[in-house]
């Protein structure tokens, strides 16, 4: 069975969309007829927009901005125009082991919070004036926002925080008809997650393949996902089919976390 969504005439902004989940989500919305704008800090965002325009037939715009800088965010979104769907997806995933004495760990911790938590806050604050009645905000959390793993305190904390932000904003923005939900992906083949997998494998003294097998063994369905495997949940939550869903944190993880 094929399920299709139509976002024709709607404008969607996806942060962290130069690659990985953000790119896959942006492609899904463009394929569904939306006017898509992609945002990221790195120079690859312009190439991503060109690729998405070519593959989907849409006119995908690119914005380059470090979302941890509130002034830069406001400059990027000033005069953006009507916004129907905001996908707060940008994030940093790095290990921050608490017993590691190097100051770089503290720098990484601060950077993760600045981008994942504060960046989501700044983008949402700047975007809200351009979002009308019935807008939708989706925030990419993680299954690690529902559980925890050793060595990734900053990332885990940030993803827990994003669920709290989504729930609180759903209460605040409900009177405007704006729905806010969090998506909690499991193991998706992205540059960041595979880097984390490699770190975990090294700590356990096993191969990356063995680590991948161990992670998959904790799932009800075997295998890791690709970005396209999680994009459907974003489409659903942004659609009228989910008109009564807000303040939720929903896992798409092949059955790894059941809560």
The number of helical segments is 8
Averaging pLDDT over every residue, what do you get? 95
Low-confidence stretches: none
What's the SSE pattern? EHEHEHEHEHEHHHE
Q: Can you put this structure into words, describing what you see?
A:
The protein is an alpha/beta fold and 259 residues long. The protein has one domain: 3-Layer(aba) Sandwich (Rossmann fold). The chain is 44% helix and 16% strand. It is built from eight helices and seven strands. The chain has helices spanning 20-31, 44-56, 70-77, 103-127, 153-173, 191-204, 208-217, 227-238; strands at residues 11-15, 35-40, 61-64, 83-88, 131-140, 179-185, 249-252. A seven-stranded parallel sheet has the order 3-2-1-4-5-6-7, sandwiched between helices. Helix 1 packs across helix 8 and helix 4 packs parallel to helix 5. The longest helix is centred in the middle third of the chain and has 25 residues, at 103-127. The model has no long low-confidence stretch (mean pLDDT 95). It holds the Pfam family adh_short_C2. This is 3-hydroxybutyrate dehydrogenase.
